[in-house]
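Regression check, zinc ion case 72:
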Amino acid sequence: MALKIRVLASHGPLRRGTVPPLVYRAEAYEEADRFRERMWGCAHDHESVEHAFNCGVEWLNDQSDETAVQMA
Ligand SMILES: [Zn+2]
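Current build output:
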């Protein structure tokens, strides 16, 4: 099973007089899944695509003991 990370953008909470900023969330899906159903999603409001993507990659690394061993 190969999981992939994607980043979704959405509008943050509305504030009076300002345009709501975009926030980004990481999601993981299975590469082989033709529907790309969400397997996991982070619960943060990241301010940039990079932050969200890194969050997803960290989660992905935590899922595999094999990866942890290789990185040690
Ligand atoms: Zn996150």
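Comparison notes: Residues 26, 42, 44, 46, 52, 55 surround zinc ion (CB under 6 Å). The chain has a mean pLDDT of 87. No diff flagged against the previous build.
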